[in-house]
Design brief:
alpha+beta; 243 residues; signal; globular; Cyclophilin; 8-stranded antiparallel beta sheet
Length: 243
C-alpha cells in the first residue's frame, strides 16, 4: 500500500488508507492520543478454548485468534459471515505491497444502494490493541463500517521515518515499550485507534508475506487501490476452537 499507506514517509501521510476506504473522507485526521500498554494477547499464542479463524488458501493457511471481550460486536459480525460460509470461495482481492492484504473488497455498498438499506456499525476502540504485524481489523467509513464483511490483515515492517515520528510525538502518544514492539514486530502505527481490531494472526505469517509480494495493478475502480494480477482464492474460512 505504498500509494495508500506511504511506508517511506511519515505516519500522517499513511492515513490516506482511510481516504482509500471511504470515498466521503476529505481530509487526513489529526493524530490521536493512542498511549496505552500493548495487550499481551497480541504477542502470545491463544489459550485453550479461544475462538480462532482459519483461512485456507493455495499459498497456505493463516490462523488468527479473535478478541471477543475487547471487540465483541466486530467479532460477532465476522463470526456470522464466516459461519455462513460467506468468505469461502472468496478471495484476497486487494493487496497493498508490504503493508496489508484485504479480504472481500467487492462487498462494499453499491453506489445506487439506498441509505436506508445500508447497515453501519460503531467503531470499537480498544487502546491496548495495536496495528502490529498480523493485526486483523474491520474497515469503516468516517467512524462507521462501510461493510461488516470488509477486513484487512496488517503486514510489513515499520520504516525509520515512522519510528522517528512516534518518538517525536512523545510518551503521551507512544511509550518507549510500544515503539520497541513496533520496531521488532512491524505494523502500521498510524491506524491505531481508528479501526476495530478483532484479532491477531499467530500462524501463517509466511503466507501473508507471500501474498504481499505478489504482482499487482491499479484497481479500475480506485487508482489508490491495488489488486492482484491473478486472483488469490480463499478455499475456506472457518471458526474453530483453539486446543
Amino acid at each position: 500500500m505504498r500509494n495508500i499507506f506511504y511506508r517511506a514517509i511519515p505516519i500522517l501521510l499513511m492515513l490516506l488508507f482511510l481516504v482509500g476506504c471511504s470515498q466521503s473522507a476529505t481530509q487526513t485526521p489529526e493524530v490521536q492520543n493512542v498511549r496505552e500498554d500493548l495487550n499481551p494477547l497480541q504477542l502470545q499464542l491463544p489459550s485453550s478454548g479461544d475462538p480462532i479463524v482459519v483461512i485456507e488458501t493455495e499459498l497456505g493457511v493463516i490462523k488468527f485468534v479473535l478478541f471477543e471481550k475487547l471487540s465483541p460486536q466486530g467479532v460477532d459480525i465476522l463470526k456470522g459471515y464466516a459461519d455462513s460460509s460467506y468468505y469461502s470461495n472468496g478471495s484476497f482481492d486487494r493487496i497493498e505491497p508490504g503493508t496489508a492484504i484485504q479480504i472481500d473488497y467487492k462487498s462494499t455498498f453499491p453506489d445506487d444502494m439506498d441509505d436506508a438499506d445500508k447497515t453501519y456499525y460503531p467503531l470499537e476502540k480498544s487502546p491496548e490493541l495495536k496495528h502490529i504485524k498480523g493485526a486483523v481489523s474491520l474497515i469503516y467509513q468516517v467512524g462507521e463500517f462501510v461493510s461488516p464483511s470488509l477486513a484487512f490483515i496488517v503486514g510489513g515492517d515499520v520504516s525509520q521515518e515512522e519510528i522517528d515520528l512516534m518518538k517525536y510525538l512523545g510518551e503521551e502518544s507512544y511509550s518507549k515499550e510500544i515503539i520497541e514492539v513496533y520496531q521488532k514486530e512491524g505494523g502500521m502505527p498510524s491506524l491505531d485507534g481508528r479501526f476495530t481490531i478483532i484479532g491477531q494472526v499467530y500462524e501463517g505469517f509466511e503466507v501473508i508475506e507471500a501474498i504481499n509480494q505478489l504482482p499487482v495493478k491499479e484497481s479500475n475502480d480506485n487508482k489508490q487501490h491495488h489488486v492482484p494480477l491473478e486472483p488469490i482464492p480463499i478455499k475456506k474460512m472457518s471458526i474453530q476452537i483453539y486446543e
